[in-house]
From TrEMBL, chain A:
Superkingdom of this protein's organism: Bacteria
Keywords (A to Z) from UniProt: FAD, Flavoprotein, Nucleotide-binding
Gene3D superfamilies: FAD/NAD(P)-binding domain
Protein name per Swiss-Prot or TrEMBL: Tryptophan halogenase
InterPro entries for the chain: FAD/NAD-bd_sf, Flavin-dep_Halogenase_NPB, Flavin_halogenase, Trp_halogen
Active-site residues, as the UniProt record annotates them: 76
Protein species of origin: Agaribacter marinus
A molecular function GO annotation: nucleotide binding
Keyword Nucleotide-binding: yes
Binding-site residues for FAD, renumbered to this chain: 10-13, 330
Binding residues for L-tryptophan: 339
From TrEMBL, chain B:
Biased composition (Basic and acidic residues): 486-495
Region (Disordered): 484-507
Membrane-crossing segments per the record: none
Domain of life: Bacteria
Pfam families: Trp_halogenase
InterPro entries (UniProt xref): FAD/NAD-bd_sf, Flavin_halogenase
Protein name from the UniProt record: Tryptophan halogenase
Any one GO MF annotation of this record: monooxygenase activity
Amino acid sequence: MYKNIVVLGGGTAGWMSAVYIAKKWAHKNFRIQVIESDAIGTIGVGEGTVPSIADFFDALGIPEHEWMPKCNATYKNGIRFKQWSSVDGHEDYFHPFYSELDAFHKQALLTSIALRTQGFNTYAHPDVFSVVSKLDQEDKSPISSENYLFKSAYAYHFDAGLLADFLKSKAIELGVEHTVATISDVKLDNTGAIASIISNDGTEFLGDLFIDCSGFKSMLLGRALGVEYISFNDTLLNDAAVTVATEMDSSIPSATYSTALSSGWAWQIPLTHRYGNGYVYSSKYISPEQATIELLEHLNLPEGTPVNHVKMRVGRFAKGWEKNCAALGLAQGFVEPLEATALHFVTQSVIDLVSAIEDANYSDANRDIYNKKLEARFTSTRDYIELHYLANSRTDSKYWHAARSFTPNRRLQRLINAWQRGENIAHVLNEEKVSLQLFSLEAWVYLLAGKGFYSTTNERTLKVAPDNVNVNIERIKQFVNISATHFKSHKLSLENLKP
Amino acid sequence: MLPIPENIAIVGLNIESLITALILRKAYHRDFVNIRIVNIANPTPHSNISLVDKQLNQLLTHYEVPEAQYLKTLKAVPIIATEFDEWSNTEFIIPKKHEADIFFHPLLQEISSLKRQHFDLRLDTNDFFFSHYLSAKKLQITSESFPFAIENGYQVDSNALHELLVEIAENNHIQIDRKDTFDFRLDTSGNIFSEDFGDGNDNEYIFDCSGFSQILTSKLPGYCQKQLPKIRQNNRCLSATLTNTHQDRKITCVAMKAGFLTICNTEQITEIQYFYSSQYTSDEDAKTELLDYIQNKKHTNVASLNLYSSGQHLVAAPWQGNCVALGLTAGFNQLPVVSSIEHLMLSVTDFVDSIQIDANEDEIKAAFNARVTKRYEYCRAFGDLSLLLQSKLDFPYWLIPQDNTLLSEVSGAMLALWRKGEDLNALSVADIIGEQAWYALFCGLDHFPQSNLQKHVNENAIEKEVYEMKRRFEGYSNNFTPINDSFDKPADQKTIENSAVSEEDNV
Ligand SMILES: Cc1cc2nc3c(=O)[nH]c(=O)nc-3n(C[C@H](O)[C@H](O)[C@H](O)COP(=O)(O)OP(=O)(O)OC[C@H]3O[C@@H](n4cnc5c(N)ncnc54)[C@H](O)[C@@H]3O)c2cc1C
């Protein structure tokens, strides 16, 4: 029975896991320890999220007004992709998170875009259908007036270091033990499971369940248990990033911006007091020095501004839970940060892990089910991110040619074929059993339509749309404009965060 | 394929024929298609108030009649719901669809489904419809800051509408022949020809808008009525017209001793029709009952009182040969959830669509007939189930058990879905009575198991969701400004002056 739980690592993943487990098993009298090294730092990036993070805070019973100000957090309506496409009119597009207001015109969006894929001249850019996209354009928060309450699934941006500190204090309040030590050895028992981990001063930490949150190194799952690593670098080229903070503008954007550069893309994440910026690139196509120059230029920063460099390992372990060890965070795997999904993997994995263990009476009986679910999550996320690259139409560098030149897997190939032939991609997603939990049907459509990935891009050759098409674009625009008036400025919403 | 029309004749000069002519004129250019309306002596009683939906606004807008002007001329009062009074323990409404309702429909579905599975949960159906809030709080139906729309209808003055339509027709190359006699003949293949129409070539279509008299339709060789179950059939209609009335944006249906009232009103008049069965009350008693009702409700002057025979009917095949029965000629349902004009407009549009279909003539007509009659059957089913499932215990008319086994295909299927706890969307004909209306009806009539009820584990969570929904609707309603005070509430009482009552008995 898992009673003695050891979490290795005090990055975001380590503290998120520890606090969640401590909350869920508060009355079980279990021992939960977090061990982190003061010699090995945390990765220090990871400031954008997806909406599932809100459920995580809800499960912990921590309201926004308590944690957001402490973590310089802001609201996130979605991601705007800039310069990923060279198709006229599609230079940028918005990937909004779910909102009832956008769902209201889902059919109009799907109809209009389906007709466009069939060569009819209909509205082909998804932004026009989306209130949430409008909120981004007007720097508004996803919080509406009391007179206009519609459900929406928004996310947050935050300072990763501050969040780890916040969660750490919460975890300690809940009885989690915190030890600073650098682990240098792992002892296995005769079944091959982990018996204990040993620090470089010889202290031995015994446990029944080990949660490996040691970052890219994956000290326990990868190194000690030797679980196979599956690299994604055959399809996803980026392997490094250079980061720098910049000053906040007078108005705070409510979305992440992802701008394609010569050999990768740059993020801009607004926090209350600064922007986090970073350029994710492929070291095969650009050197760290050149990448730095390009990022600073992109941000209008002077040459020589201090930056940080990060290396990334893109791929996953074949199993996220082996023997008595489950890895969470970077130690479990990482699909590059384009859709800011890494912390979603942490929260969903720890939620799944806790319930898998509970359902099996605190044993490992549900391990295979857990691993299958994790694999499916990786598969759909990787597919979605690969499609971003496959559908890019930049012609300005070798990198962008290479980024779309890999052979798509069967699912993506079918999807692309169906899309380009004007067929219904919902069928393909359904038949290929692609999980729509994180990326809904609309999300796939936003991506393809947003980038203008149509087989005919010459507007003059498009056919006149049939007149029974039930899409009243003027009314939709009016709906979007009026709806947006009900939302507060992002800055004001943040200032008003109170109990 | 059917021949493209060249000559179109419409029999009967009334609101229905004029609307038919205008829809056809919109579809067919005057240089290629002649459209004429032939007046006939027509005993069909006509209501002083017509119930129309937004489609008519669109049609008139096409003819460049601005909406505001049209509503003013016709003394129009919007319809945002049909209210059922006295049918069950509580009043309930069948709302006109409001786009904002869509977010709460799943909750209504869920709760109603659980209640059908013997769970004891509270359900005030009206709370799920935004029209109800607009009505209860006496708010305008549109707001510049709330972009969700209501598919409301209008109650309009029939005479004013008739005049307006004649004027538009005359300005748009629709010929109106005002004569009292009218001769026609049938050829061997069942097509109608008349010297009054023109030369009788193949490209001639004739629309029968003669109302209950069915002047042409009833003479056609294949004419027959579709037999539908008879549930609490009413054979009389006593109609009162009142002046100086209050304005209500709901049509009201009130269960009475031996039938039901339907009440509608324009800015100037109220029309109350009592559909009843002479088996359960006498004409004299019905009249007393109606006048008592009027007095109790503090309505005002009765300007006229007329008695007609009234039944429901449906022509089995409205389109035969070159003749298409429309509106009241094709079918009539007493319960006004869908008005006769709405039926008519949909049928004429179906006709125009049919002409473009590339198929064999008989198939096209059969498909048209199936579609049109199905709509009437849906509406009839709606009425039949209201009359069947009500929970009145006071009068024989309501108590006599009805033979459930005789339910129509549609009523039977709807009731079966409901009782099995399933969703009702499977059978809805989207363009006529939406799914939401069926939920409103079954829930409003409280047609749920009443015994062996159990508590549901999620009761609190469900109540919380309902509370949240109400909070959201309350918020939405803050976007709307109040209406003029004269709406939705009775005017000061004035005594009924019987002097104005006249009787016209066509029974
Ligand atoms: C360029 C980039 C951008 C990203 N952007 C996003 C984003 O926008 N959104 C998002 O959700 N995620 C993002 N991520 C991922 C995100 O940063 C991580 O998922 C998150 O920070 C969790 O990291 P971690 O806790 O797993 O690892 P780390 O932060 O690396 O923490 C590892 C911990 O393990 C401890 N440790 C390691 N070895 C030992 C040892 N031997 N003994 C003791 N302790 C040890 C360290 O001290 C440290 O505390 C991004 C990642 C990269 C690389």
